[in-house]
UniProtKB/TrEMBL annotation, chains A, B, C:
It is an enzyme of class 1 (oxidoreductase). GO terms for molecular function: 2 iron, 2 sulfur cluster binding; metal ion binding; methyltransferase activity; vanillate monooxygenase activity. CDD domains: RHO_alpha_C_DMO-like. It comes from Acidovorax soli. Its EC number is 1.14.13.82. GO terms for biological process: methylation. Gene3D superfamilies: Naphthalene 1,2-dioxygenase Alpha Subunit, Chain A, domain 1, Rieske [2Fe-2S] iron-sulphur domain. PROSITE patterns: RIESKE. This is Vanillate O-demethylase monooxygenase subunit. Keywords: 2Fe-2S, Iron, Iron-sulfur, Metal-binding, Methyltransferase, Monooxygenase, Oxidoreductase, Transferase.
Amino acid sequence: MFIKNTWYVCAWDHEVPHEGMFARTITGIPVLLYRDSTGAIVALEDRCCHRGAPLSVGRREGDCVRCLYHGLKFDSSGQCVEAPAQDRIPPQARVRKFPVVERHRWVWIWMGDPGRADPALVPDTQWLDHPDWRSQDGYIHYDVNYLLICDNLLDFSHLPFVHPGTLGGSADYAAARPQVERIEGGVRITRWAIDTEAPAFAKAVKTWPGKVDRWNIYNFTIPAVLLMDSGMAPTGTGAREGTRVDAAEFRGCQAITPETANSTHYFFAHPHNFAIDQPEVTASIHQAVVTAFDEDRDIITAQQRSLALGPDFKMVPFAMDAALSQFRWVVQQRLQQEAAEEALQAAQAGAQPVHIVRPAPQTT
Amino acid sequence: MFIKNTWYVCAWDHEVPHEGMFARTITGIPVLLYRDSTGAIVALEDRCCHRGAPLSVGRREGDCVRCLYHGLKFDSSGQCVEAPAQDRIPPQARVRKFPVVERHRWVWIWMGDPGRADPALVPDTQWLDHPDWRSQDGYIHYDVNYLLICDNLLDFSHLPFVHPGTLGGSADYAAARPQVERIEGGVRITRWAIDTEAPAFAKAVKTWPGKVDRWNIYNFTIPAVLLMDSGMAPTGTGAREGTRVDAAEFRGCQAITPETANSTHYFFAHPHNFAIDQPEVTASIHQAVVTAFDEDRDIITAQQRSLALGPDFKMVPFAMDAALSQFRWVVQQRLQQEAAEEALQAAQAGAQPVHIVRPAPQTT
Amino acid sequence: MFIKNTWYVCAWDHEVPHEGMFARTITGIPVLLYRDSTGAIVALEDRCCHRGAPLSVGRREGDCVRCLYHGLKFDSSGQCVEAPAQDRIPPQARVRKFPVVERHRWVWIWMGDPGRADPALVPDTQWLDHPDWRSQDGYIHYDVNYLLICDNLLDFSHLPFVHPGTLGGSADYAAARPQVERIEGGVRITRWAIDTEAPAFAKAVKTWPGKVDRWNIYNFTIPAVLLMDSGMAPTGTGAREGTRVDAAEFRGCQAITPETANSTHYFFAHPHNFAIDQPEVTASIHQAVVTAFDEDRDIITAQQRSLALGPDFKMVPFAMDAALSQFRWVVQQRLQQEAAEEALQAAQAGAQPVHIVRPAPQTT
């Protein structure tokens, strides 16, 4: 149901404690997160291999975790190292350990084959802790499938309609047709609105003499990560040609992580590189984004209820769906590829014992 | 699951606004209701054809509605007439429009084939706005399948047991066997209790010297509409023979409309033709009916819970089930007829391409 | 899904009223309980045979019950004896009557074949009302399948981990390997911890000079009844060899009764035979047990949520699972046996009509 071999954001770095533990379900699997004595993050399946109790209601013992149902103790590799009334612990008594990368304030987790978890594949979110940029940490929870949120983010023509008082701007913003390109693992979207009204959230923290040129240029890649260069500059100053004079620039970072088939984690921040010594500016931008994302959640949750009533409902495609259609196709391709790989592995695993067990037929 | 080609009550007239919009789910389909500039009621599917967002959280623009997700605009025929960044709108970009009839305070909707929506088929509820009759508007919501409510209304022997303090009267009322006749699309029930106690709700607004003759004569027809002549007159004054002297007469109008498989809308009023210049009499009657219908809801909801626990539970039929059994049979017949018609249409639709594609067999 | 031919605890005796009625769902079947004029408990299916309304929202009429939907009256054998507007009541108009035994404060019910309901099979819980013992009545409700609670009670190695402040004692208690024996319909578990710390709940009501020998010896039998001899005595005084000097002795009685597939009734008491004239001692012991059982419910409910997330989760067995594995096997055997008996009865019932209806083949 979910792509496995990819990096998912599972937490803000400050959510994972040095003492104690933190639990969050990622792609339907309960995950336990904590920091060992070196500060490194440990991610284990949050389900004791014995009877399934969550380890997160257990107890830290140094770098280990003890399940507080029957007292099994697991080290940070997930291996059970102690069981009451039992000297020898079978090696299969272990919980899954998930590869984790902590980088630029986000904690990324790999729910698939650990052997393929290449840290070099983690997307670059340097603006989250770059000294020239400022932002606040955002998180909201959704009770919908994550793809409905992806759809939303892949078509910014909704901005003037869903977010008139925050991110929206005027209706001509929706009328501007964005450029959509396929990139590795996703799509790149470039939308320019020339000589347009600045959106309310930007006007609240910056003044321009008149209208602006506005851009939203972002990559949206698997599993569901949006990294955006956006902003506004006075119209006619050549922003589209690459000159950014008196501009308000943002580097939005958003990660949509499935919790279950019907619920989703949404991590976000909206770094800006102006007025970075004015915390009230950062707070104002953040609050506008939070308000807007709550507006998104309202309409998407209503959409979800409406779709649930009509399982046979057929969506009519529009031109504005170019990016979301391409991204959904990329997701589908990746899921099919993983399914094919798993089928191949299962066939190979099944074939081998047969080969070992059966003696070669004697023909003479 | 539900009969399609029939008129369902979907609202009281005052619920549908001139400005703004009103949303209600009918037979599992979300419906948007509003009045155009002529005051005529428009009923559209409340689910944008694009991505399924409810139009009812959108915006009226004259006689049109704009979806406030991506800004699509629909006219009152359901046709999409505007989409951001798109000049040509495909004709299939439309939402369903449902035939509607507004008559005698109720708004009726046709969820099936619009070509068969004959306004002449709307039942007559003239007492809801007749100058000689008075009533208040009633609505309650149920979390049960609508047929359990039909069952309840098709057997008034429950009155002394469920409604002893309001509609009930004495136990002899239940003991009187009603006459049940098949009529077009339903049943007609005639129940007389002679020389009986008047029910509490009637005693509260009218006094008689002694006992009364009481009648409940009603048609219960598809989809689930109850239209009743009921009342009480002093016993021995010949009410059963057609003379109504010193009578309290009522013309109950009730419509049970499925919301989903497990929830139901219930519209009702209980017009009376005496003391019509005394609003407190109308209020007293209405309140008694509301109290009684809440009693019905309590027992039917308990029944629903009990039935849900035992999906294999077999009901034992009793003599008092004559009317409800006949009505359930009528519903079943109508559903089978509609299923057969749809199968025939599908076969004809499917047969045509075959006829076109395949060359005629050559016999020589 | 549940064993049928066995005695389930369905209530504490004081829960079943002389006037009025009491309703509780047992193994998915709604049950109505009341006392007739002799004080004997009547247990009927709490679902009117007519339209399924719960009789428990009806009315007692002497030893009978009247359904307050359509007024059907049932006697204490479950037979319908009165129906409005109907002289002859068909004999099949009846609700199930369940065999009941009231003994030592508990009410036991038999949900299977009444002909096999032998009162001699009711387990002995004499300590619940024996003059030499004292306890308070306990009941808690669980939203989990009953077998997860059985698992919990079949492995007391969880005591130091789940109940450190009440029943727990020190970790060496978990390290002591219990003896597990198969007995008729279940298992017998004997766990001794020698020279150990007394648990907090016992220290709160009794003092010993030093460490104690502690025992928990209990039968856990179908359907899910735990009867336990437990206690502590000063270490070295020979408790294990049968001498009980200065001991705190308890006779825990616990019954786990499925309500539905996902919810459970838990009846319990923890009788003690010392300080029986001090109600505060009884109250202290009871409160400790209630606190501990709430701790169990917390961890088991968390376990249930965790298991629900992963339907394919495979438990890794540990040595401590010996008793629970054996009990689960006993349950499985009994369910298979009942299924086989039912299949046989169905085949026999089915074979007869065939024999009657079909003429013998004519061979000439």
